[in-house]
Specification:
Blueprint (H helix, E strand, L loop, with lengths): L2 H13 L1 H10 L12 H11 L4 H14 L7 H6 L2 H6 L4 H14 L14 H9 L6 H10 L12 H10 L8 H8 L6 H13 L5
Helix pairs in contact: 1-2, 2-12, 3-7, 8-9, 10-12
């Protein structure tokens, strides 16, 4: 186990025995960071996946790539692609608009999207949410699954809210504010805690 991961798990067990017990039961931490491609590629994929099941989103994303010969398009290639051809692969009109806006921003070599890995978490969120169609949740997913940032707690995520509800035996779904307050003790490893909360919802056979 990597040193930082071991330190994170030890910290979570120490500050939150309930979460610690679940960690022991759920097994090894398994979040995988997407290293391939560019930051732009990853954000394109994130927009395609918004509000869709994994299987449906994967199909549409595959069709998008097929429009560009099977490779991830550059910002300028996406800008040049006619909107009707993008809609023909299953993208909604709104998502086509979002991808065009993203591409217009990323087509500028100086745009911060090309150096997200150099920016602190708050700046990454600010850069991404300034682009139409990218909200806080999507920006947080980029922080976690693209940049591998260790201290992200997506309080707006329904899976996170359900995980907190189930783990702590709450009668009602917690609000984002309640999740944030409960999760404050998990810092600076809230990404790790989040992964285990998702795991709680996805693996009912373990509890």
């Amino acid at each position: 186990m990597p040193v930082r991961q071991a330190k994170a798990l030890a910290h979570l067990r120490a500050v939150d025995p309930v979460l610690g017990a679940w960690i022991a039961r759920a097994g090894p931490y398994g979040l995988r960071v997407a290293r391939a491609g560019t930051h732009f590629d990853h954000v394109v994929r994130s927009i395609v996946y918004q509000q869709l099941s994994g299987a449906a989103a994967a199909t549409i994303h595959g069709r998008v790539l097929a429009r560009f010969g099977g490779a991830a398009p550059t910002p300028r290639q996406l800008l040049r692609m006619p909107e009707d051809q993008l809609r023909a692969v299953g993208l909604s009109g709104r998502k086509v608009e979002y991808l065009k806006d993203l591409s217009a921003a990323a087509a500028r070599a100086s745009h911060p999207i090309h150096r997200l890995h150099e920016l602190p978490d708050e700046e990454v969120i600010a850069v991404l949410t300034a682009i139409r169609g990218i909200g806080e949740w999507t920006a947080q997913m980029v922080l976690m699954f693209r940049l591998g940032r260790p201290d992200v707690l997506p309080t707006l995520d329904l899976g996170i809210q359900k995980g907190v509800q189930q783990l702590y035996g709450l009668r009602t779904l917690p609000t984002p504010e309640q999740v944030a307050r409960r999760g404050a003790r998990w810092a600076p490893y809230r990404t790790v805690a989040s992964w285990y909360l998702w795991r709680r919802v996805d693996t009912s056979d373990l509890w």
